[in-house]
Specification:
This protein has 90 residues and is an alpha+beta fold. The radius of gyration is 13 Å and the shape is globular. A three-stranded antiparallel β-sheet has the order 1-2-3, with no helix packed on it. Helices cover 23% and strands 43% of the residues. It has one domain: PH-domain like (Roll), CATH 2.30.29.
Length: 90
């Protein structure tokens, strides 16, 4: 479902950030402090499972938030570049 009609939303207002990953209203939400993010990178999970490339996007700060393992390489690259641009501007 995620591959076909899933979405990744990142809303940043000031230093407050909210990440939603899911389909429709069903999904996973995390709130965190965007100003604490020191590094945005593509990482390897260390294992692969059905439907996953083993690659994830990693937001590193006081904690490490990993996501986006179930999307295509092209979509993950596009999202990663947008996150890097957003982080650079803040």
């Amino acid at each position: 479902m995620m591959t076909v009609c899933g979405r990744v939303d990142l809303i940043v207002v000031g230093s407050a950030a909210k990440l939603f990953i899911g389909v429709g209203l069903l999904g996973w939400t995390r709130e965190f402090d965007w100003s604490e993010v020191t590094k945005i990178d593509e990482d390897v999970l260390g294992y692969e499972y059905s439907g996953s490339s083993g690659q994830v996007i990693s937001l590193v700060g006081r904690t490490r938030l990993i996501f986006d393992s179930m999307t295509t390489e092209a979509r993950r690259y596009y999202l990663l570049q947008g996150l890097l641009l957003l982080h650079q501007r803040s």
